[in-house]
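hi!! sorry for the late reply, been swamped w classes. u asked for the two structures so here they r. pasted raw, havent cleaned anything up. first the sequence of the first protein and right below it the tokens
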Amino acid sequence: MYEGESVVQLAKRMIEHLLKWGVTDAFTDKQIYTILEKAESTLKPLPAMLQVEHPITIVGDIHGQLDALIRYFDAVGYPPKVQFLFLGDYVDRGAKSFEVSLLLFCYKIRYPHLVHLLRGNHECMKMNRLYGFYEELTRKRGGRMWRQYQNVFNELPLCARVGQRILCMHGGISQNCNSWESFKALKKPNTPLTCDEGLQVDLMWADPTQDKCNTFAMNKQRAISVVFGQKGLDDFLKKLGLSLIVRAHEVSQEGFNFLFNKKCVTVFSAPYYCGNDTNCGAIMHVSDSYELSFTVLRPRMIATPENFEIVKLMENNYKGLMVASPDPNRGRHLQSADVPQPTPPSVQLVPPVTKPVEIKKQ
């Protein structure tokens, strides 16, 4: 650190450098440890469930795609002009998990009341040890820093309520929740064992399903947590007086996907996931009147003889997405030269009532 430089000033310098160059070579290990320690102390007092207000922009899985994250910022605005809620899975799969997570930690340090970070299943030690983050960080900085990262991940909240009507998490809902008291009593898991227990494992791992399951069943595909159906979701929303569940955790071809009469939406923000999915990425905007809109990011891909068929498939998908339609699932699609504003609101939530809640088209 420069003489007299505070941690916040160091975070500001790191943000500027990462946005311009996309690397951390200009910073020492000591400086990065300083940021990690400050991020941990900033997150530690926070409860397992956050209460945030709207308007807010919600971001799903990023998975080390620094370029995609910066494109979203270019499109909708940077903190502090925009309030952000990130739903987890910052690391693994992508090539710049270290840079993505460090950039978000720096933003959290600079704007703790405007940048909100939740924990995804890949912010658990057993996952990021196996799916790329450990190898990346060991190569770039060393294994000791990976262990320090786990201390920060352990302090991430697990879910967030937006206003009084939307509940956000990385995974999904749980049958282990009977009231808001369950969330107030929720503790942040800080060991691999506690990550796989109770309400917390479902908040990071659960999936919606439209198969035969109508309430809750074992999540056989992931071999952990549960899947939930229409009735399970309806009962959960009614019990807590909510209108909508916002979650991430699953690839969506269009970047987002509504389920169960638009009472649950999946937001996935990593386009061209793992280099072999032809999916878009998306982020969701919640206005001050609970109107929902989406900014959708098309993956960048240059056609070559080797990937010609994939590029052709992607372009055919995009033609279908760009067809004029009243369906609110159709978002604004960004291309590399675009610097647009968010889409006009296309879905509006109705207030919670005792009968089943619907999301009406605007």
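now the second protein. again sequence first, tokens right under
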Amino acid sequence: MPFLSLKFNLQKRVKLAQGLWMLYWLAVIVGIILFSLGIFFKIELRKRSEIMDNNESHLVPNLLILVGMLSCGLNAFGGKLCHDSLDPQKFSKMKPMLRPYMLLCCGFNALLLLLVLLCFLMQFAVYLTLAEGLKNAIRFYKDTDTPGRCFMKRTLDMTQIEFRCCGNNNFRDWFEVQWISNRYLDMSNDVVKDRVLSNVEGKYLMDSVPFSCCNPGSPRPCIQHHLTNNSAHYDYDHRTEELNIWNRGCRQAVFSYYSGIMNSIGALLIFTMVLEAGDMAGLKYLSTALETMADPENPECESEGWLLEKGFKETLADLLSKVKTFGRANQVEEGGASPDVAAT
């Protein structure tokens, strides 16, 4: 007995074909959105490649672009199948393509599932890449004259301004590195000389942050130097007062931005999978309803459509038996080939 069988007359077949045609073109629009999101995500990764040590993975956006193109092509063809299905002559020409097309759709859904998993799993890799990249970006902030690092200062400043963040984990990361180049330090000044000599590594360290860490929404003028020295500022206590610089680290801020994009893409991909599954089920009903017409020349006659030709258990048992038969055939071939190999 067929699984989930339904009776169809001409009116129901026409409505099903029209509804499927609309769903397939909706899937084409979703494919265009996926393609656009892939390009957008790739551009966003490229834009901040410097703060990720140029080690960011483009696997997800590349697959997203591929999936978008495949979705447009497969669903446009599915729409044409539905449009031509009610014409007996056109349907007879399209009929041999139905099975390969359904297999392609199953493979496409498997690719969608893989991409959904990657959208969530790759977030961990993005987090680690950002952690290491931002650490190095802060270290190279001062190297504006070094080839390959000339724009690191600008990139990091723009990142801190755009994402309203400061440092890698927090603003104290700037206290641990020399972020002012030696060319801008007056080495004849005793204060500067003492600060450099007092450091084991000969670095000019200070409790200050770049201007891009300042919060423009603060009512007090930005205090970016001597942040931990209460006596350097009037009516100031760094332990109790809310500082007028950004407290959030850039790793958390940028990662939240990228994870938001990837979560949104994952949700859209899940919707696409559901849409594709609905299209496949509808197409199966439509094709079987057209094949079981008692008189193909008479469009008014009733027919029966189904998802599976046999019951669910019987179909599953047949599938398992085919897999076992295929496995045994491979074992026999390997066993038959081994004597020949031994003889040689």
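hope this helps!! also noticed smth abt the second:
Residues 3-138+252-301 form one domain.
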